[in-house]
Design goal:
The structure holds two protein chains of two kinds.
Chain A (H helix, E strand, L loop, with lengths): L1 H33 L9 H15 L5 H9 L2 E5 L6 E6 L9 E5 L4 E7 L8 H11 L2 E6 L23 H12 L4 E8 L7 H4 L3 E4 L7 H13 L5 E3 L13 H8 L5 E7 H9 L1 H11 L5
Chain B lengths: L4 H21 L1 H8 L10 E11 L6 E20 L1 H4 L4 E11 L5 E12 L1 H4 L6 E4 L5 E2 L3 E19 L5 E11 L5 H9 L2 H7 L12 H9 L2 E4 L10 E10 L3 H5 L1
Antiparallel strand pairs in B: 1-8, 1-10, 2-6, 2-7, 2-8, 3-4, 3-7, 5-10, 8-9
The chains are: A alpha/beta, B alpha+beta.
């Protein structure tokens, strides 16, 4: 009997070892595939350098040195045609590594930065930021320069809101340092059908600052939006819904850690985004609310 | 020793009087024991819901237009009272006039509504929602619900405030029209709602929306009200404010206890 059992045991051991080996091999292969993205993530030192350069640019530094310093980080600084005092900081042409696209306005600007970090993925948010920037004298706007997921045309797919040292964080911190009483507004889009609570499923917008204790400044914007966008339902995290609170948003975390209380995370349903893109009057009310309390 | 009937009656009355007297003397402690003290501030309130409310104006009426001729009109109102009167009074009397017009603009009725808004602390000592407006010292008394039946059906209404208690500084309200869902229309309207909305409608039912019989599904839609905004431009023709509704949070001291 014992002689008959031994081969079976050997086979079992071999099968188990083979399965463990396959699992290790699969993990290694898939990890390398996952990490195949060329989404550029600067280290702490480079992020600090970028923050210093963004601060100079936001302060209106016109020197040629700034342009050269930005080039060393993979950016180019260009004036925007047919505008006065507006510049853009963008990735060097053809390089799609997700460093971001930044538009700066110098004269008579309201200290507000609009950010659409998921342009393309959150449909309409990029265009909405562009429209608002054109229609209101906001000081700056920023967009992701690579899609959220890798594509054939752009290997630099990634999510900048998940990366602590991303240039978007450096830009946000630089903006907060330049405009301590200003506001950094991130525009996002959400899919109602993917929400878990009925409150979020029925919401048109969810506004938060990434913390469980929203400051009065956020409630000012929320109240204004409730009136301006009525009958659209605007909810505040966490009192009115426990979803989409941006508590893991790296830019929000970094800004709060730096003592800045002007971070606003605005999630919009697809229907509201469509209405805002096509209805100039509604968009004007949104822009006015985002600028509430800013001079 | 045995008491006579009169003696027993006198003893009973005396015991009752002593009980009532003791309860009266200890009323504040009793309220504190079974409810919450009104000394708590708004800072301890966790905002759970925000709603738009419209403020009555003494200079010009607040106008509402119904989406279709309305046979029934619902108005939920609340007075905002002086903080100074909050600790002294149990209720505040206030009023407003509702003028009802038909589709041709002809006045068909005028209703003077007088209500007595109760103090939430003293009358309802349970943990119930508390309402407030940010950046305002005024206190909000309990809401009153008014339903007006209009024959013929109303097309528009105009609301103006009437003389109220001196402590009543403002009157905020919301106007509702009834959704016209009856019988099969109600069932069809229920089916047209998204699963999330159906679940919300069936929230108070014992069964989830997908398990409800058709009659109950239709019933969920037959008594629905839709809130209306006033006609005109906010800030110019009417004043709109955001009312917060929440619950008091127990303080650290209470949690330690």
């Amino acid at each position: 009997m014992s002689r008959q059992r031994r081969p079976r045991r050997c086979t079992l051991v071999i099968v188990i070892i083979a399965m463990i080996g396959s699992a290790i091999l699969a993990t290694a292969i898939f990890r390398s595939l996952r990490e195949a993205t060329e989404f550029y993530v600067p280290d702490q030192r480079e992020a600090a350098t970028a923050q210093a350069l963004f601060t100079r640019a936001l302060a209106g530094d016109q020197g040629a040195v700034l342009g050269r310093d930005l080039e060393a980080l993979g950016f180019e600084l260009r004036p925007i045609a047919n505008t006065e005092g507006e510049r853009v900081i963008r990735e060097i042409d053809g390089d799609c590594r997700g460093r971001g696209l930044y538009r700066l306005r110098e004269r008579g600007a309201v200290p507000l930065a609009l950010i659409a970090p998921h342009r393309g993925f959150d449909r309409g948010t990029g265009q909405l930021a562009e429209q608002l920037m054109a229609e209101f004298p906001f000081a700056a706007a920023a967009w992701n320069s690579a899609p959220r997921k890798i594509t054939q045309d752009c290997p630099g797919g990634g999510d900048p809101t998940r990366v602590e040292t991303h240039y978007l964080t450096a830009f946000s911190l630089a903006f907060a340092a330049t405009h301590p009483g200003g506001r950094v507004v991130q525009l996002h889009g959400f899919d109602r059908s993917r929400r878990e609570s009925s409150a979020a499923q029925l919401a048109d917008a969810i506004i938060s600052e990434g913390s469980d204790n929203p400051a009065a400044r956020l409630l000012d914007v929320a109240d204004c939006l409730s009136v301006a966008l009525h009958p659209a339902r605007v909810l505040v995290y966490p009192g009115e819904t426990r979803e989409l609170g941006a508590t893991q948003n790296r830019q929000g975390q970094a800004l709060r850690a730096g003592g800045f209380d002007g971070f606003v995370h605005l999630e919009m349903s697809a229907g509201l985004r469509e209405r805002l893109l096509s209805d100039g009057a509604l968009r004007a009310r949104l822009g006015q609310c985002l600028g509430t309390g800013l001079t | 020793m045995r008491l006579t009937r009169i003696g027993r009656l006198v003893s009973l009355i005396a015991a009752t009087a002593i009980g009532i007297g003791a309860a009266w003397l200890a009323r504040d402690d009793i309220i504190r024991l079974i409810g919450w003290s009104k000394a708590q501030s708004e800072l301890e309130v966790e905002a759970a819901k925000r709603s738009l409310v419209y403020r009555l104006n003494r200079e010009a009426p607040l106008n509402f237009a119904f989406s279709r001729p309305a046979g029934v009109i619902r108005i939920v109102s609340q007075p905002l009272v002086d903080a100074g009167s909050w600790d002294r009074l149990d209720y505040w009397t206030y009023g407003f006039r509702v003028e009802v017009y038909d589709s041709g603009g002809t006045a068909i009725a005028s209703h003077d509504i007088h209500s007595r808004a109760l103090h939430p602390d003293r009358i309802l000592p349970f943990r119930r929602p508390v309402r407030f407006v940010r950046d305002s010292d005024l206190k909000i008394a309990l809401q009153d619900d008014t339903v007006i039946v209009s024959t013929p059906a109303a097309s528009t209404i105009a609301i103006t405030p009437l003389p109220s208690d001196p402590a009543v500084r403002e009157i905020d309200l919301r106007v509702y029209e009834r959704l016209p869902f009856i019988g099969r229309t109600a069932l069809a309207a229920f089916h047209r709602r998204s699963p999330a909305e159906q679940a919300q409608l069936a929230g108070a039912s014992a069964l989830p929306a997908e398990l409800l019989p058709d009659a109950e599904r239709a019933a969920l839609m037959t008594n629905r009200w839709k809130v209306l905004g006033p006609t005109g431009v906010p800030g110019q023709d009417y004043t709109v404010t955001v009312m917060y509704e929440g619950r008091f949070q127990p303080s650290d001291e209470e949690e330690d206890e």
